[in-house]
Amino acid sequence: MKNILVPTDFSVQSLQLVHEIIKRNPQQKLSIYLVHLVQIPTDIADLLFARKRHLYEQVPGKFSQAVEMLKNKYASRINLMGLEFYYGNTPTVVNAIIENRNIDEVYVFADHLYNMPLKQSVDMTNLLNKCKVPVVQVQPKVRTNAPAEAHFFSSLFTEEQPAPQSGKLFQHA
């Protein structure tokens, strides 16, 4: 079993990494943690009533639908896949998540700027530079003649090519 962390900005395009994870781990059963960091509340009222439920309510329906489609498509390969919110904005927080979830690798898009969908969102990509596990950088696949979202949804229903069996599979940051 391999545990993988994927930072997400709730864009359907960010879920392209799941296809890449499946291709690069051909014989592995996988647990994929989609993680989004948010600032720790500073207002005393926010601290007293901080509930993650209101964060989950802000996740776009298209993103949740795409996650469910991926879980169904790769049901034989994915043991667990879900979205988790964490409070914090330091490398220590990221390393605690990695340690608590027994993360083996982190997957990110190379040279990609993640959106900050919530006012309290934290850019996790810079914090990953100091994490204790390999960070696999993947070039995003962009099609110029179709929106990325349309390409992603259509890719859910097409067969994937088998992953190469030789050569270096991972590019570590």
Give a quick summary of the entry:
The chain is of the alpha/beta class and 173 residues long. The protein contains six helices and six strands, in the order βαβαααβαβββα. It has one domain (2-155): Rossmann fold (3-Layer(aba) Sandwich), CATH 3.40.50.620.
Question: What does this protein structure show overall?
Answer:
With 173 residues, the chain is α/β, with parallel strands linked by helices. The protein has one domain: HUPs (Rossmann fold). It contains six helices and six strands; from the N terminus they run βαβαααβαβββα. Strands 1, 2, 3, 4, 5 and 6 form a six-stranded mixed β-sheet that branches. The longest helix has 13 residues, at 61-73. The two termini are 23 Å apart. Residues 157-173 have low confidence and may be disordered.
Give the count of structural domains.
Answer: 1
CATH-defined fold name:
Rossmann fold
Structural class: alpha/beta
Count of DSSP E strands?
6
CATH architecture: 3-Layer(aba) Sandwich
Oligomer: single chain
Average the pLDDT over all residues and give the rounded result.
82
Note poorly predicted spans: 157-173
Q: Considering DSSP H and I runs of 4 or more, what fraction of the residues is helical? A: 25-40%
Distance between the termini: 23 Å
The biggest beta sheet is recorded as: 6 strands, mixed
CATH class: Alpha Beta
